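pasting for ref
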Amino acid sequence: NLFKSAAVRAGMQSASIMTVADIMTQLVVEKKSLVGNKSEDDNVVARYDPVRTLRWATVGLTLHGPYFRYCFARLDQMFAGTAQSLLVVAKKTALAQFIVFPPYLVALFTAIGLMEGSDDIVGKVRTNVPKAFMSGCIFWPIANCFNFALVPSTARVPYLASVGALWNGYLSFMNSKSSKK
């Protein structure tokens, strides 16, 4: 059965959470409207973009979930049989941040650029990846220390996708701002 595959489950979990993150980013952070009308002061309120949400859901299904499911399983294998000491947690966190995360960001902004029909995908990657990586150096080590120290391996993808809802909202917002330039 296809839905018994760990990669498919991870993709579906990530797609669901990335969908919610983008909807919340558009409606709450960017203050878009579901109907797109004028505000009380006659300013036009931007309309919610369901196609943008679909792009983020697609990335969650096809990239985020399967990629991180695979990478974190490999990290667990690298340290199999070792106690979850502070040193092991620090090593896993460092590997996740500096080995796993950068290729994902390149793939993410490339995929989003392709789905947006961007004529400058390389520029999108060059602009967004360094900013996202530096921001991620603050956010993800904290989340991953908790992840590797306390979250069972079977719950890692749902945990990371849930914590990642905040992160993905940030990435969605950052990407939308760079797309308008």
